[in-house]
Amino acid sequence: MRRIRLWPKGLTGRVMIVLLAAILVEFAGTLLLFGEAERLLLRSGQAHRVAEQLVVADRVLRLTPERNRPYVAPSLSTRHVRFALHDSAPADLNETRISNAAQQEIISWEPSLQGRVLRLGITPSINGEMPNRLVGALQLEDGSWVYFHSREAISIWRAPLNWVISLLFLAGAVLLVAALLVRTMGAPLRALASATDSIGFAEQRIIIEASGPQELRRLAEAFNAMQERIEELLESRTQALLAVSHDLRTPLSRLKLRLHGRMRPEDPEAMRADVEEMQAMLDSLLEYLGGGDGTRNDPPTRTNLAALVQTIAENAEEAGHDVRWEGPARLEAVIQISALGRAITNLVENAVKYGERAEIRYFPEGEQAVIEVRDRGPGIAQDMLPLVTQPFFRADSARARDTKGLGLGLAVVDQIISQHGGVLVLENVENGLIARISLPVEGGSFSRNQKKKSGNILLRF
Asked: Are 82 and 148 in contact (CB under 8 A)?
């Protein structure tokens, strides 16, 4: 069985249905409110005219001799009310809620009729051709009855044809204007959808101009920022593949030569070193591609940085490196212990690798915790200092194999420090290089910078 969909898929159709429903509700409310008010005014006016003419007729007939009253009563008729004189009360009046309300209105409008015998009714319509009219009788002092018959029809609830025509015209005009406006407003969304479909196929980046309403400007800015992130992501992944394919060739070539050649006693150890080098390359690559920030299983915790630095330094000493540290016994800060420990370890390993010795200083500076790692090496060329924190960049020219790795060590460190809301600064000094880390003690910036969360978010429109 085919399912019928009543709710339109498009924005224009949905807005038109909402506007049509609003028009119908407003029309119904207006019709009920003003129609009821109009009916009440008409009935009140009829009751007031009947009341005034009844009082006049009563006074005139009271002053008229009894033999002349049957002739005088009809002469009191007007174009609104017809009068007649009878000896007995009417027997077949159709009393209704409307007639009772009219009787109360008559007595309220003419208090002189209070206490008098007054009977009212509504003439029934015949086949819908003869409209309802107000009829009744007032008993005079001599016992006779003056009959009255309103010549104005009592208003009933019905929607005139011109009202229906007005409704249709109004609804059509509003829906036409709404369709044009919504289509105009939806043009940027259609352009955005078209631009989104072109991502990955167009030769150039598609930039959407941030103009129009605030929501559309924010949408355009978010779209442009998303494209930049995608481009950076693809570029970093491409660089990763190029770097690993380039740098793995040398140890693989050495392994091939040793496997196809005559095995020497020192070859197993050299082959083991090549395998470890390739393993280190892949580990650093996976660490970088995986985020390098350790946010998922490493929540921010208030930690004694002094103990963390001393532990790293002692581990480096046990590995046979010359490492010295200096700082207070306690320096607390809100950090990710594993991630920051990995960053400091990378700096210490670089220091002992290129500068033979690592000197670590840590101290508070205002609301910042500062960690400095200094080596005694040749430093880095001044023009390369801004580049060494970029992924896959190495200071050795033309990516020569004089140094091992993929050039991701400082990139990972900079990524971790940025995740903490801190700053990494590299500075050449006399006889060495200083890597300076500044971290907010309270870790306030960390919660705002932490954007990666596990799981999916479903947005339903």
From this structure: yes
Residue 170's pLDDT is: 73
Nearest to 243 by CA among 113, 143, 387, 392: 392
CATH for 293-449, among 3.40.50.970, 2.60.120.10, 1.10.630.10, 3.30.565.10? 3.30.565.10
Q: Phi and psi of 17, rounded to 5°?
A: -65, -40
Percent of the chain with pLDDT over 70: 74
Report pLDDT digits (tens) over 369-413.
Answer: 999 999 888 888 787 877 777 766 665 543 334 445 555 668 778
Q: Tell me the two tokens of residue 20.
A: 């049509």
pTM of the model: 0.45
The C-alpha atoms of residue 39 and residue 36 are separated, in whole angstroms, by: 5
* Sequence letter at residue 442: E
Give strand pairing partners of 153.
133
Mean pLDDT computed over 437-449: 70
- For 11-153, CATH gives 3.30.450
Strands, E assignment, 9-80:
none
Is pLDDT of 241 > 80? no
Q: How confident is the model at residue 295 (pLDDT cuts 50, 70, 90)?
A: very low
Cα of first residue to Cα of last residue in the chain, in angstroms, is 27
Domain ranges of the chain: 11-153, 161-236, 293-449
> What is d(CA 79, CA 77) in angstroms, rounded to the nearest whole number?
7
DSSP letters of 319-335? TT-EEEEE--S--EEEE
Assigned token pair, 64? 């008229």
Distance CA 72, CA 67 (A): 10
Residue 43 pLDDT > 50, yes or no?
yes
Q: Where are the beta strands (DSSP E) in 197-331?
A: 301-304, 322-326
